[in-house]
Amino acid sequence: MSVNRIAAAAAIAACLGLSQVQAHHSYAQFDHCQIVALEGEINYVEWVNPHIVISLRTKDVNAYRVEWFALGQLERAGIAPETLKAGDHVVITGRAWRDPAFKLLSLLSEVRRPRDGWTWASERQIPESCQSG
Predict the structure, then answer these.
(1) pLDDT of residue 15
(2) Most buried of 11, 32, 63, 95, CB within 10 angstroms?
(3) Under 8 Å CB-to-CB from 112, ≥6 apart: which residues?
(4) What are 41-58's pLDDT values in tens digits?
(5) Nearest one of 109, 112, 78, 81 to 96, comparing CA atoms
């Protein structure tokens, strides 16, 4: 196989992989302009790719699915599987799915555990297009 064919095959494979990643990371269904804070107890935490998933039991909604950052991102930030566990009372701030029937929160900006003051915060800001003025 020639070098040109190998380079072309690699470029095609990279483009196909990139399109799958971009498709997965579409956040169009989330309300980027409204930050929602949920408070409750963790049912479970799944340390899986592509996102850490938290099942959060709130007083009024039963169970909410919370998608945190990618596994590698959180590991580099010092977050370990034992950081949060079932039964922890937390306050999680992020963006909710536009359709409230889907109990889903993502694009997190903060996770707090009031019991001991532990906090994780993102640098994520409200987009300028949402700010009035």
Answers:
(1) 45
(2) 95
(3) 90, 91, 92, 118, 119, 120
(4) 999 999 988 889 999 999
(5) 109
Residues 6+ apart with CB under 8 A from 27: 95, 106, 107
Is the pLDDT at 30 greater than 60? The verdict is no
Q: pTM for the whole thing?
A: 0.72
Q: What type of residue is 27?
A: Y
pLDDT in tens, 82-102: 999 999 999 999 887 767 777
Return the residue matching tokens 């993102």.
122
Which residues lie below 8 Å from residue 44, measured CB to CB, with a gap of 6+? 54, 55, 86
Q: Look up residue 11 and give its DSSP letter.
A: H
